[in-house]
Specification:
Blueprint (H helix, E strand, L loop, with lengths): L4 E2 L2 E2 L4 E7 L6 E6 L6 E3 L2 H4 L2 H7 L11 H10 L32 H13 L4 H10 L4 H12 L1
Antiparallel strand pairs: 1-2, 3-4, 4-5
Amino acid sequence: MKTRTTKGTAALPAILLGTVPSTSTDEVYEIKRSQRDGVVYCSCKSWKYDMEGKKALGYARHPAQRSCKHIRYIQNQAHVAPRPQVRVEAPKVEVKVEAPKVEAVTKSVNVSDLRKTAAYAIKKGLGSDKVFALLKDGGLSDLAAWSLLAELDA
């Protein structure tokens, strides 16, 4: 079994998964799995030069993404799983947001007293803008003050 060395250290030998004879020549191709990275390699020219990738994409793919009919044949015969795909998921983070508590400030408005006061002010000749301000000071909203003023003017 051949082993490649890198910078003086012996590489791990590849595991021979099987051999596949060529359908067109008398060659026999070896299918191996690298112990270092788990990639399945074939000794055929189609795998080496990534003919499938060049036809589909226009360039050769990374060895982990390559395949050929010999590798597919061995995988189908021996049920050899392809290199496992690693799926990394980000941790789920729960974010709790609490809305600030707002306490409504409500004034108890005695509309009947305001009505009497406004009617008296109108009777005495106080202008509608001043009566409106009087009603607003008494705790009425703009709409309520205008409505009451319109009711009293009529």
